[in-house]
Design brief:
This protein is an alpha/beta fold. It has helices at 15-21, 28-36, 62-77, 81-84, 94-105, 116-130, 136-155, 165-177, 192-202, 216-226, 236-242, 259-267, 300-309, 312-362, 364-367, 372-399, 404-416, 420-427; strands at residues 3-9, 41-48, 52-59, 89-92, 184-188, 208-212, 229-231, 245-248, 274-278, 295-298.
């Protein structure tokens, strides 16, 4: 069986396509179960953020499994699979593990080193475990990926000079307006990104922070934390008449604010300009809002350009993080091979013991006249011969675990001693 990842991200697809393929939190459970019924996907974890949508899977057959994922993504986006072709990437086995380690470490993000991705990787894994779509193989890989993300941020500066998507949204708004001092800002969405934006606003000099969310209690809790004011969704239009900035990142599956809504708001603003920063995926704001006079609408494409300006310090840490990823990949391989070696050694010794017992049984008649002490000596002698013959091969295959040489030893022992059935079982573990 292979482990694969099939997906697209900010480097391979435009925002318009990313938002069509994105799976909002409200649709995650349905998507996981839709993937699970696909014939060649044995385990699934789905990671969908504002920068990427990726399906990780333990597969029964490689190429059909890749097609299963392509078909799912195309159906979800209401597109023909061929329309996704050039935008999708596929990695398998160690390359898939290395890719996930890099994602978790923050070096594959649009904003290099951003901290939100580590939590998103963890939550994707937890959701898959809760729904029963992540088994031992993917859980082991994702658990290790979370460790890689933590180690990268502890041992390097990759996260210390970084801006998250949420803080970058606030910084982008401040850069476009010159400052947020004295500004009234409406935050739509109180999830992880919305919370991050509100917290960043509290330290950016905003005069008033207003929070709206589908769940009123979350809006109240977040507003209380940042010294802001919660409002109901039905009050958004009136609040936008007074606001200077709208920052939005909900988990909605489609547009939340239509062009007509903003046109109505702008008619009531008396010519005052409105800045909107939409970092949701799919987008919360109708792109047609860009055509409304007096409105500046920024989205993830603008964030991408803004992120390039703050990349230099973090870029210096990428090499160190890549070294950690490589080191952890080596450790992952060693642990995986060790898991394969242990049952292999057990089976090898079991096969040898079968042969020893079979030979003793074959000579039972000749040994029948031996006294108990001599019979015990024969048993010890034959056991000692078997142990000595297997000692060096066992030590060498264990010492080489996790290396290409170890894989050669494992394959050779499996083939020479006809342990294929065990090898199949270990591949499924």
């Amino acid at each position: 069986m292979s482990v694969i990842v099939v997906g697209m991200n900010h480097r391979t697809a435009p925002v318009e396509l990313l938002e069509r393929v994105a799976v909002p939190p409200s649709g995650l459970v349905k998507a996981l179960h839709a993937l699970r019924v696909r014939e060649h996907l044995a385990e699934i974890v789905l990671l969908s953020t504002c920068n990427r949508t990726e399906v990780y899977s333990r597969t029964t057959l490689f190429h059909p499994a890749v097609q299963d994922v392509r078909d799912f993504l195309a159906a979800h986006a209401s597109l023909d699979p061929d329309e996704l072709g050039e935008h999708l990437y596929t990695y398998h086995d160690d390359a898939a593990v290395a890719h996930l380690f890099g994602v978790s470490a923050g070096v594959d993000s649009m904003i290099v080193g951003e901290g939100e991705i580590l939590g998103q990787v963890r939550e994707a894994w937890r959701a898959a475990e809760h729904e029963g779509t992540a088994g031992q193989v993917l859980s082991r890989i994702f658990r290790h990926a979370v460790e890689v993300g933590k180690r990268s941020r502890t041992e390097t500066e990759i996260g210390r000079h970084a801006v998250s998507v949420s803080s970058a949204a606030v910084a982008l708004a401040a850069a476009r307006l010159g400052s947020l001092d004295g500004r009234r800002v409406l935050v739509l969405g109180a999830g992880e990104v919305g919370e991050g934006m509100a917290v960043a606003l509290a330290g950016a000099g905003a005069d008033e922070i207003v929070v709206a969310n589908r769940t009123p209690s979350r809006a109240r809790d977040l507003a209380r934390r940042v010294g802001g004011r919660p409002i109901a969704l039905g009050e958004i239009a009136d609040e936008l008449v007074r606001a200077d900035v709208l920052l939005t990142s909900t988990g909605a599956s489609g547009v939340v604010i239509e062009r007509a809504d903003i046109e109505s708001v702008m008619e009531r603003r008396g010519g005052r300009a409105l800045l909107i920063v939409d970092v949701a995926m799919p987008r919360d704001v109708d792109p047609g809002v860009r055509q409304v006079f007096g409105v500046m609408l920024l989205d993830m494409d603008d964030m991408k350009a803004f992120a390039l300006h703050s990349l230099e310090q973090r870029q210096r840490e990428v090499g160190r993080v890549r070294a950690i990823v490589a080191d952890e990949l080596d450790r992952f391989r060693a642990e995986r091979t060790a898991r394969e070696v242990a049952p292999l050694v057990t089976a090898l010794r079991g096969r040898a013991e079968e042969i020893r017992q079979s030979e003793l049984e074959r000579f039972r008649a000749r040994l029948a006249g031996l006294d108990p002490a001599t019979r015990k000596t024969v048993d010890a002698l034959t056991t000692g011969i078997v142990n000595k013959l297997l000692h060096d091969p066992t030590v060498r295959v264990k010492d080489a675990a996790g290396t290409p040489r170890g894989e050669l030893f494992t394959d050779a022992i499996t083939e020479l001693f006809a342990l294929d059935e065990l090898r199949d079982a270990s591949d499924n573990s």
